[in-house]
Task: structure prediction
Amino acid sequence: MATQPVDDKLKVSAEHAREAAEQTQEAAESTQEAAEHTQAAAKTTAVASVQMKDSADRRTELAANRTVFAAERTYAAWVRTGLASLASGIGAQKLLAGVVPDWMILATGSVLILFSAFCFAAAVWRQVFTGSQPPHPDVQRLPPFMLVLFNGFLALVSLAALFGLWFGQTGGS
Result:
């Protein structure tokens, strides 16, 4: 009968070992599931990171587009101001005749017409020499040779109007 308590102890030990093995198996399965979740979370984070980077790149491109459009609006404002100044300089002779002395009419018209030529030159300068280049925009910028050609013609018109103001009538009546 001495073997009975040893057998009981062995059975109890075997039962504890089986329970420990089951718990170890469950812990291993839980660890495997946690590892799979961690791996899935890492993939999700990587995808989100790529999407965030793509989103940031897109925002940068859109900002570059807005910068190009703002530069074009500035160019248009310079040209518009130059044209208004040119028209005012030409109209000054007819508008101010008989109201102020002739030398004042000549000075006012000259300043307005010279300012128009300055505006045409400044428009090209601001558009072509922007300082630092924006990141690569999706939209194309206006070709500089077209700006120089167009505004150069307008500056010549301004100078012709200035000579017309100084030396008499040209063209019309």
About this structure: The radius of gyration is 41 Å. Residues 2 and 8 are 11 Å apart (CA to CA).
